[in-house]
Amino acid sequence: MNKLNLAVIYGGTSPERDVSLVSGKEALAALNTDRYTIFQYDPKEGLDALVQDAPTIDVALILLHGSPGEDGSIQGLLDLLKIPYQGAGLLGSAIAMDKILSKQLYTDAGIPTPKAVEIQKGVPFDTAAIVATLGLPLFVKPACGGSSLGMFRVTRQEELNAAVMESLTFDDKVVIEAFIEGIELTCGVLGNDAPEALPVIEIIPEGESPYFDYEAKYTPGATTEICPARITPALTEKAMDLAMQAHRALHLKGYSRTDMILKGEALFVLETNTIPGMTRTSLLPRAAQAAGFSFSALLDRLIELALESGKK
Ligand SMILES: Nc1ncnc2c1ncn2[C@@H]1O[C@H](COP(=O)(O)OP(=O)(O)O)[C@@H](O)[C@H]1O
Ligand SMILES: [Mg+2]
Fold first, then answer.
1. Is residue 139 within 6 Å of ligand 1 at its C-beta?
2. In this structure, which residue's CA is closest to atom 24 in ligand 1?
3. pLDDT (tens digit per residue) in 217-250
4. Across the strands, what pairs with 20?
5. How far does the centroid of ligand 2 lie from the alpha carbon of residue 213, in Å?
6. Percentage of residues in the chain having pLDDT higher than 70
7. Cβ(16) to ligand 1 under 6 A?
8. What's the predicted TM-score (pTM) here?
9. Does ligand 1 have an atom closer than 6 angstroms to the CB of 148?
10. pLDDT of amino acid 80
């Protein structure tokens, strides 16, 4: 088999640069060098080298998290350069990056998502009215954020204004969401034409973290993750079905990972990640492992799916 020239793109300039550097490093260590000749690119250093090398590159693995990078911008550049890449295209990436747009599409598709209010920079808002509508606690999130950065769990009305102002430093749009108390789940989806849901993971933040915040996500041992989730077969099926529905509703491709909360028998979708964390112990690789894919086999599969969709 001829070796493929593979561009691994990671790092970048989003607030999630550090997370991306770890994803990139671990993926590079796991990629099968019998199959790939690997070229590395960090958009922080500029993209000239990637543009120059484009004619010789067969396929790209984008391991950028957050915006810019996961939001369709690098996907658009690769489209222009005619380089196939794993996962969602420009449109799906842009939609899924935006939690407000995603929620609108979930709702249109009948996918339950927590009640929310949108705030735009410079437009006045009434904290009392928001609390009256959504109750307390509340989650304040930048519309196009990730890794729980710029996110606040607000327990008192007096804290809401400051939380929104801080969140608005991450993005010009902020979503304020009703708190759903329950079991946190995440479910991956893998495949192009006939995507399949991966086993559901249950997430239990321990210790200091009241929710799956940045520390809980990236401090070793701060979170317990159980796969498959300890929920009934019927609820497991429902969670998998919602992950597939969310994947379709947001026009995604290749793979994705949808975060949800289970409250009693009701599931609520929080968001769908188009370039989920890609370290060996990240959630999607863990779920893939439970489905029989080693980390390296998962990377091979993503690259295979990229080439398959690039051919169309
Ligand atoms: N409405 C909510 N109710 C309960 N917990 C929430 C809610 N929104 C967010 N969270 C908590 O915050 C974490 C991050 O939120 P999420 O919407 O997935 O954004 P991110 O893109 O930062 O991962 C979730 O994994 C969950 O622990
Ligand atoms: Mg999330």
1. yes
2. 212
3. 998 889 999 999 999 999 999 999 999 999 999 9
4. none
5. 9
6. 99
7. no
8. 0.97
9. yes
10. 98
What spacing in Å lies between the alpha carbon of 273 and ligand 2's midpoint?
7
- Quick one: which ligand is closest to 216's CA? 1
pLDDT at 312: 55
Q: Could you list which residues have their CB under 5 Å from ion ligand 2?
A: 259
Find, among 77, 72, 84, the residue nearest to 51 by Cα: 77
What domains can be seen in the chain, in order of their start residue? Answer: 4-86 (3.40.50.20), 95-111+181-310 (3.30.470.20), 116-178 (3.30.1490.20)
Q: 210 alpha carbon to ligand 1 midpoint, in Å?
A: 11
* 270 Cβ inside 6 Å of ligand 1: yes
Give the residues of the chain that fall short of pLDDT 70: 1, 312
Q: Where are the beta strands (DSSP E) in 150-216?
A: 152-154, 173-178, 183-191, 196-197, 201-205
Atom of ligand 1 nearest to the CA of 145: 21
